[in-house]
UniProtKB/TrEMBL annotation:
Highest taxon in the source lineage: Bacteria
Protein name: Hydrolase Cof
Pfam families on file: Hydrolase_3
SUPFAM superfamilies registered for this protein in UniProt: HAD-like
Gene Ontology molecular functions: hydrolase activity
Length: 256
């Protein structure tokens, strides 16, 4: 039975140097030849994954943790965060000297000119510090935002803004998404477009934003380099991404 393989990017497809291992590329190509379908499921935005989509010839993806979904290069779902809510979060964050970054499908922009926390976290994605446009959220749809604060400063945001979700992805940064907007909800929306059943989905991930995807997919694989909680939830834990973990999982599951 053909499977829909849902692939996280950072720490799953890309290794610790943000490179696609040759073994992973080969495994994906072979799985496709064997009749399986490939889709990306990432917290990144579409503009951040164009090169990997092109390299792997993938045209189906869940981005922004479920807020912007495309199948065969056609948008099948998008959900923006309300501008009024973003305005309130921005004002709250500014009082605490926490910068905000706004993202749509084309780019990310920062609420301030430069901040070391933005630089530190954005650099891990191997992309440059965003340009500044403070009122971007008033003139564009924003599907995901980032607030830059340390872990002990995070809870106040959960308490103050119940209508959105905050999910930490870096030492100094949290994703801000519409409530309940997750990779799991994204999978449910995507399979309506692809025609797969949920039982035919296999999720591959490593981070906290992959937890609900692990729970909802028919089968789930965590990378050995993943978060402890993610590994606990997964059906199977494969080897480290730097040690051909993805290709080894494909072999274990007899996808190749």
């Amino acid at each position: 039975m053909p499977k829909l393989l849902l692939l996280d990017i950072d720490g799953t497809l890309l290794d610790s140097h943000k490179k696609l291992p040759a073994s992973a590329k080969e495994a994906l190509q072979q799985a496709r030849l064997n009749g399986h379908d490939l889709a990306i499921a990432t917290g990144r935005g579409p503009f951040m994954i164009t090169s990997i989509l092109e390299e792997l010839k993938i045209d189906t993806y869940i981005t922004f943790n479920g807020q912007y979904i495309s199948h065969n290069n056609k948008v099948v779902h998008k959900q923006a965060i309300e501008a009024k809510m973003l305005n309130e979060i921005l004002a709250y964050a500014e009082q605490r000297n926490h910068p905000i970054v706004f993202m749509n499908e084309e780019k990310m922009v920062s609420s301030i000119d430069f901040h070391p926390d933005i630089e530190e976290s954005i650099q891990t994605l191997k992309i440059p510090h965003p340009e500044t446009e403070k009122d971007f959220h008033l003139n564009h749809e924003v599907y995901q935002a980032l607030v830059f604060c340390e872990k002990e400063e995070e809870q106040q945001y959960h308490d103050a803004f119940k209508e959105v979700d905050f999910v930490r992805w870096h030492r100094v940064s949290c994703d801000i998404s519409p409530k309940g907007g997750t990779k799991a909800s994204g999978i449910k929306k995507l399979i309506r477009a692809t025609g797969h059943s949920i039982e035919d989905t296999i999720a591959f991930g490593d981070g906290l934003n992959d937890l609900d995807m692990m729970d909802v997919a028919g089968y789930s694989v965590a990378m050995a380099n993943g978060h402890e909680e993610t590994k606990k939830r997964a059906s199977y834990v494969t080897e480290h991404v730097d040690n051909d973990g993805l290709a080894k999982a494909f072999k274990h599951l007899k996808l190749i």
